[in-house]
Each structure stands twice: as C-alpha cells, then as structure tokens.
Amino acid sequence: MLTIVRIHNELLGTYGDRGNADVLAFRAKAAGVTSTILDISYRDPMPESGDIYLLGGAEDAAQALSLAALKRDGVLSRIAATDSVLLAICAGFQIIGTTFVNGENEVVEGLGLLDVSTVPGKSRCVGDVKIFSDLLGIELTGFENHGGVTTIGSSAKAFGKVIVGRGNGDGAHDGAVSGNVFGTYLHGPVLARNPEFADFLLARATGMKIANVTDPLADEYAVWRRSVTK
C-alpha cells in the first residue's frame, strides 16, 4: 500500500496544489499500485509511515501556521533521511528551506531540508513557467505566483533551468532537489501538467518502474502546455 500524505491542505491549498495527491493516486492505480491519501491537518500529528509527502502554496499567515506545526512534531525532518519522497510547492518550498523572509520582513528559520534561502524580490513573479529538468530529461510547465528570490546553496541542485518565466526569481533556475526532497515554484497542479513527473515520484517512492499508464488526455495536455508556453 502506497501512502500519500497531503499536508495541511486547509493552510497550503491556496493554489490548487492539493490536486498533486489526486494525480499520484490516479496514476498509481493505473500502474497497478494500491494507494491511499491521508489528509493531515495542522492540528494533527504527522504520520511517519508515509511514502510521499506533499506541501502546497499559501499566503504568509497560513505559511507561518504550517511551519510552526511542522517544527513542533519534527516528522518531516526525520523522513527526509529515509527513502520517502517529499514534494513542496511555493510556500511549502520556502518552508523546507533554510531561511525565508516573512511578510513582516523578519528572517524565519525553515526546516532546513533543502539548502535554499529566500528573500523578497523587487517585483512579483506571476505567469506561466517552462523549465528544462536535467533530472527528468524533459521540459516541464507550471504557473508561478510568488514574491521571493530563492538562492540555492552548495548541498542542493536546481530542479530545472528556466526557459520561460522567472522560477526562483532570478530567471535562471527553478526549485531545488536533494535526494528525494523536491521543491519548486510550479503550480498547476504541477503533476497534472506534467504526468511524467508524477510517475518519476511514484518510481522513487516504490522502487518500481512506473509504466503502462494510459492517459491520453493528460499526455496531450502536457504536450500542448509545453508548446504554448512561450
């Protein structure tokens, strides 16, 4: 049984990132893998038995509440050292970084699961994004809406090189990766727009090759978004 943990959706569900869990469950079933989605409130204890953990985007106040809850139970810090997969989007990406600056212009310590730090940018990053991911060997698309500039430290690698948009705010790279911990600014939800990435995460979590997933509509949509994001 594959366990997908959707973290604090009532806080980190502003931009529809909750859909990433649904895409994973759908494609897992199509590949013959039984799965379940656990929705964990910020008031609930975090399970340590998950295979894939998901964080989404949010505004400043919700981001602060989520971070406080995650620091309190410490589970994500422990699972980052296991084979479990963690995907964090936008505010979630900042949460798992080393530091970020909040709406009160205060430097906040994140969970430190990715060697990245975020400061306010001079203008907001809004619009379609297209990147090339060396890890997957393909282009990926998404939608960004954030005001931060994220710098990647020496112990993490960029998730992708920006082709269109601003990504981490510098227009050069988007996201960061270290082991099975992935961060990105791509909303969409990113796994709905890029089914190959969903299969990649499922393969990482299960140790299996995820193949024979037939979803022509998803494939057609991914190709179309890559062609029109210019």
Question: What does the model show?
Answer:
- By secondary structure, the chain is of the alpha/beta class.
- The chain is 28% helix and 32% strand.
- The strands form two sheets. A six-stranded mixed beta sheet has the order 2-1-3-4-12-11.
Secondary-structure element series: EHEEHHEHEEEEEEEEHHH
What spatial order of strands do you see in the largest sheet?
2-1-3-4-12-11
Tally the helices. 7
The major beta sheet can be summarized as: 6 strands, mixed
Poorly predicted tracts of residues: none
| Rg of Cα set | 16 Å
Kindly, what is the distance between the CA atoms of the first and last residues, rounded to a whole number of angstroms? 40 Å
Shape designation: globular
**Beta-strand content bin:** 25-35%
Protein structure class? alpha/beta
Count of distinct strands: 12
Mean pLDDT: 95
Helix content: 25-40%
Descriptive key words:
six-stranded mixed sheet, 12 strands
Write the layout of secondary structure elements.
Blueprint: E1 2-7, H1 19-30, E2 35-40, E3 52-55, H2 60-73, H3 75-79, E4 85-89, H4 91-95, E5 99-101, E6 107-109, E7 116-133, E8 138-152, E9 160-164, E10 173-174, E11 176-178, E12 181-184, H5 190-193, H6 195-206, H7 216-228
Parallel strand pairs: 1-2, 1-3, 3-4, 4-12, 5-7
Antiparallel strand pairs: 5-6, 7-8, 7-9, 9-10, 11-12
